[in-house]
Design goal:
Blueprint (H helix, E strand, L loop, with lengths): L1 E8 L6 H10 L5 E8 L6 H5 L8 E5 L6 H11 L4 E4 L11 H9 L5 E5 L16 H22 L11 E4 L15 H11 L5 E4 L15 H17 L2
Parallel strand pairs: 1-2, 1-4, 2-3, 5-7
Antiparallel strand pairs: 4-6, 5-6
């Protein structure tokens, strides 16, 4: 058995080597490969990534243009050879020490799809904490929670955090699936498509360290609200 870790990377010069080091150090009960998809960063990240070109078990894909997280993941999936696939952002918001608890139920053949939930066990309903305007932070958290509720209603599930980046799944889940979402809406699409195939995820609590825009958070709030809402509705009725 092998784990394929897909890591989309864009303008993460400050954090890339730190998170890569954590991913490489984590001890797992199976082999792993790390697939880095670098999206033509403008902050020197590509030059840092190049240092790892000849490292065993690391594959690197260079994109000519930044087309979004979802697009990078789709490119990474084409190169994945593992039985289990895990998505890892190239920042320090998520902790690779959670890998073992997330892959365990798949290794035991209990389920095929696992989500690492930032909300389970969290002390407050506001999982995103930023140093920016407090009203902006409140708005973002309200919208995110509303999106979760709408998704659960439309898909008849009871997930706490379908937006979480930590998606872990067996390669068999990909049969007959062709992803189309290029940006953060990919996180909604994968949940929608798998659930419609009858692949219902289970969730486990994970560590989460929300970062601010000043720390490199890259999200256009208005655009992502539109794309996410579109994805939630579209993939409920269209394949």
């Amino acid at each position: 058995m092998k784990l394929s870790i897909i890591m989309p990377v864009y303008n993460e010069a400050r954090y890339f080597e730190k998170i890569l080091g954590k991913v490489r150090k984590v001890r797992l009960p199976l082999k792993k490969e790390i697939i880095i998809v670098e999206s033509n960063s403008t902050d020197g990240t590509r030059e840092i990534v190049k240092k790892y070109e000849n490292i065993k078990d690391i594959k690197i894909i260079y994109q000519e243009k930044a087309l979004g997280k979802g697009n990078a993941i789709m490119q990474g999936l084409k190169k994945a050879t593992g039985d289990i696939i895990l998505i890892q952002d190239a920042d320090l918001e998520y902790d690779p020490r959670d890998y073992n608890k997330l892959i365990a139920p798949i290794l035991k053949k209990e389920v095929k799809f696992v989500i690492g939930s930032r909300k389970m066990g969290h002390k407050t309903w506001q999982i995103r904490s930023m140093k920016t305007n407090k009203y902006v932070v409140l708005f973002v958290n309200v919208i995110a929670n509303l999106a979760d509720e709408i998704f659960n209603l439309l898909y008849d599930v009871h997930l706490t955090d379908p937006q979480s980046m930590y998606k872990v799944f067996h390669k068999d889940c990909l049969k007959g699936v062709k992803f189309k979402s290029n940006r953060f809406d990919w996180d909604w699409e994968i949940c929608a498509r798998f659930i419609r195939k009858g692949i219902i995820p289970i969730e486990f609590p994970i560590a989460y360290n929300s970062r601010d825009f000043s720390e490199g958070k890259k999200i256009n709030i208005a655009r992502e609200i539109f794309l996410n809402a579109t994805a939630i509705i579209k993939y409920r009725f269209l394949w």
